[in-house]
């Protein structure tokens, strides 16, 4: 047992040392007014909507999604150079990209950037943020608002159709719960089953 505990501790320590990316945005008056996403090299991620949130939503990005984020961070020099455009544009939220790998730590803050790699990384993180907001909305509807489940599923369906849904497998337990529970509307159950099937067996991209 002691050997097992030591092994688990070693694994936890190794996981804690994986390179991490963090994206945060503070935009008072918007909904949410604050958000932060942290992703490690293996896709282990958290989402929070308050700086002092001690119980963030945990989820896992696919290897492809995690690699896309880190590849863009590398193109940006791991955030060692300025990204702010300097243009007089409206405030669109104070954004921060942060890179951590052991003792190596870099971050850059900006409101608006013209750098195409910064824009691409920002878009990726916004997709992840939207995905977690869809998850929260669906989970809340499943627990407290059965009549609102179909609307939450419809929003999820649209996001998936527009290729703006990340970490799709996290939705499967909720979708299966709806699809198999006859207390939900038939329309919601059918849509949940269809979405779950698509996530498990995505259609090949047409060329």
Describe the structure.
The protein has 207 residues and is of the alpha+beta class. The protein has one domain. Helix content is 45%, strand content 18%. It has helices at 2-16, 63-75, 116-144, 149-161, 172-179, 186-200; strands at 20-26, 34-40, 44-48, 57-60, 94-101, 104-110. α2 runs antiparallel to α3. The longest helix is centred in the middle third of the chain and has 29 residues, at 116-144. The radius of gyration is 19 Å and the shape is elongated. The protein starts with a helix and ends in a 7-residue tail after the last helix.
N-to-C span: 53 Å
What fraction of residues sit in β-strands?
A: 15-25%
Mean pLDDT across residues: 92
Sheet with most strands: 6 strands, antiparallel
Strand order of the largest sheet: 4-3-2-1-5-6
Q: What is the H/E string?
A: HEEEEHEEHHHH
| Oligomer classification | single chain
Count every beta strand, where a strand is a DSSP E run of 2 or more residues: 6
Unreliable spans are: 1-15
Tell me the radius of gyration. 19 Å
Helical content class: 40-55%
- Count of separate structural domains: 1
Structural class: alpha+beta
The total of helices stands at 6
Gross morphology: elongated
Notable features of this structure?
207 residues; alpha+beta; 6-stranded antiparallel beta sheet; 6 helices; 6 strands; 45% helix; disordered N terminus
In short:
The chain is an alpha+beta fold. The chain has helices spanning 2-16, 63-75, 116-144, 149-161, 172-179, 186-200, and strands at residues 20-26, 34-40, 44-48, 57-60, 94-101, 104-110.
């Amino acid at each position: 047992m002691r050997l097992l505990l030591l092994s688990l501790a070693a694994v936890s320590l190794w996981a804690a040392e994986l390179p991490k990316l963090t994206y945060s945005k503070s935009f008072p008056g918007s909904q949410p007014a604050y958000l932060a996403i942290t992703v490690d090299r293996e896709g282990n991620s958290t989402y929070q909507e308050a700086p002092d949130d001690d119980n963030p939503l945990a989820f896992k990005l696919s290897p492809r999604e995690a690699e896309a984020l880190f590849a863009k961070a590398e193109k940006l020099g791991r955030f060692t150079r300025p990204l702010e455009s300097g243009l007089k544009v409206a405030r669109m939220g104070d954004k921060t990209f942060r890179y951590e790998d052991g003792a190596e730590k870099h971050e850059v803050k900006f409101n608006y950037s013209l750098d195409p790699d910064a824009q691409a990384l920002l878009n990726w993180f916004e997709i992840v943020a939207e995905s977690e907001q869809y998850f929260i909305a669906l989970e809340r509807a499943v627990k407290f608002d059965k009549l609102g489940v179909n609307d939450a599923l419809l929003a999820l369906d649209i996001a998936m159709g527009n290729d703006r849904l990340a970490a799709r497998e996290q939705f499967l337990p909720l979708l299966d719960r709806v699809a198999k529970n006859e207390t939900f509307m038939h329309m919601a159950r059918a849509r949940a089953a269809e979405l779950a099937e698509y996530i498990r067996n995505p259609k090949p991209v047409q060329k």
